[in-house]
Amino acid sequence: MTTAAERLTKAASMWASPGRVNLIGEHTDYNDGFVLPFALPHATAVSGSRLAQKSWQVTSEQTGETVIFDLEDKVEGWASYVAAVVWALREAGVDVPGATLTIASDVPFGAGLSSSAALECAVMAVLVDLAGVDVPMRDRPRLAQRAENEYVGAPTGIMDQAASTLCREGHALFLDCRSLATEQVPFDLAGAGLKILVVDSKAPHAHVDGEYAARRRACEEAAAILGVTALRDVDVDGLPDALAKLDDETMRRRVRHVVTENQRVLDTVDVLRAGDLRAAGPLMTASHESMRDDYEITVPQVDTAVRVALEHGAHGARMTGGGFGGCVLALVDEESCDAVETAVRKAFAANGFTPPDTFVVTPGQGTYSLSK
After folding, report:
1. Residues 6+ apart with CB under 8 A from 334
2. Helix, strand, coil % over all residues of the chain, rounded to 5
3. Which of 204, 242, 361, 370 lies 20 to 30 Å from 52, alpha-carbon distance?
4. Which helix (H) or strand (E) holds 369?
C-alpha cells in the first residue's frame, strides 16, 4: 500500500504532518492544562507550487475535488482548513503566495485522530516554504489553532496542532498548554514489550458541534466563578473547596474531570520518565472513567472497546480525542495484542455495532519535509 507522500506528484515544496493520538490529558488543553500526545505514523502530505496571482487551487486526492479561492472568498467544507491557514498566516504578517496545492492523507477522517490539524500544519509548512519566510516550528501551533478557531469555527485547544508539528519519533510530547513549554518524554513501547492498539469505533465524531462547545463554556464559567484564569489553576488538593463553591452539579462534574485529568497527565509523565510504561495503564483507565462519568463524552462503542480490552489483559485503555465517537487506545503486551483485537471485534459484532478498524501505532515524527 502506497503512503500519502508516494501518491503525490513532485512539486516545488512537499511537506507532511501526522495525525496524533493523545496518550492522556483530554479536554485539558483549552483549560491551560497538560497533555501527553504522540504523533502517528499516519500523515497528511501536501505538495505545492507558486502561482503568479493571489489565488489558491487545492486538489484533494481523496475526493478528487478541486477548489479555487482568492482573498475575498469565504470557503466552506474541507477546503476551509486550507483557506483558514492562508488567512492566519496573512493575519500574522506573512505575504502568502498564491499556490496550487495537492493533498493526500493516510489519517483516518472523523476518528478523533486530528486529521484537521494534520492538514492545517502540512499546508502551513508548504505555504511558509513557498513564501521563503522563517516561521519557527514553535510558533506554528498557535497560528494553526487560530485558523481552526476563528476561520473554521471549531473551538479546539492547541494540543492537536502542537502534536502534529512538534512531536518526535519514539517520544510522547509533554505539553504545558499555557506556556507552550514542551518535553520530549521517551516512550519506547517495543523496548518494554508493549504495543498501543488503536480501535477506531466508527461512531461519528465531530468537533464543530454544540456538545464540545458546551463543555468548554462550562469550564470557562466555572473558572470565572472560582476566580481563576483557567481550571489549570485548581489542583487536586484544592478540588474539594472548589467544588463546594459551585452550585451546579453538572459544572462540578466537568471541573472534577479537568482537575483530576491534569494530575493524571503529571503522574503519567512521572512513570514514563522512570521507564515504567505499564504503570501508565491504570491512569489511562481512570481517565476513561472520568470522561465517561464526569465529562460525559463517551458512547457505547468506545465504552465497550475499553471494557473488553481490559477484560482480555490490557494494562489500560481509554478513549482518545474530543469524544462522542472516535478511537480507543489500549496498552497491551505484545503477545496479547491479537487476542485483545479479536475480543473487541467479537464484542462489536455481538452488540450490532459497525465493525471497527484496528491498528497498532508507534510514536512518529511531527511536521517534516518531503522535498529532496
Report:
1. 190, 193, 194, 195
2. 45, 25, 35
3. 370
4. strand 368-369
Q: What is the pLDDT of residues 280-313, one digit of tens each?
A: 999 999 999 999 999 999 999 999 999 999 999 9
Phi, psi (degrees; rounded to nearest 5) at 187: -140, 70
Backbone angles phi, psi at 161, to 5 degrees: -70, -35
Numbers of helices and strands, H then E, in the chain: 10, 12
- Write down the pLDDT at residue 166: 97
| Angle at CA of residue 340, ends 106 and 326, nearest 5° | 40
pLDDT greater at residue 4 or residue 336:
336
| Cell numbers describing residue 4 | 500519502
DSSP-based three-state secondary structure for 371? coil
The fold of 5-186+364-369 is Ribosomal Protein S5; domain 2 (3.30.230)
Residue 263, SS3 per DSSP: helix
Residues of the chain with CATH 3.30.70.890: 190-361
Tell me which residues are annotated as active site.
160
In 10 A of CB 213, how many CB atoms? 14
Where do we find the cell 495537492?
A: 102
Using DSSP's 3-state secondary structure scheme, residue 351 falls into: coil
Q: Which residues contribute to the annotated binding site for substrate?
A: 26-29, 212
Q: Which residue has the cell 497498532?
A: 360
- The boundaries of every CATH 3.30.230.10 domain in the chain are 5-186+364-369
Calpha distance 148→142 (Å, rounded): 10
Per the annotation, binding residues for ATP are 60, 110-116
CATH of 190-361, one of 1.10.287.3510, 3.60.140.10, 3.40.190.10, 3.30.70.890: 3.30.70.890
The pLDDT of residue 361 is: 94
Residues placed in the known binding site: 26-29, 60, 110-116, 148, 212
Please, are residues 76 and 68 in contact by the beta-carbon 8 Å criterion? no
Strand pairing partners for 14? 47
126-154 residue pLDDT tens = 999 999 999 999 999 999 999 999 999 98
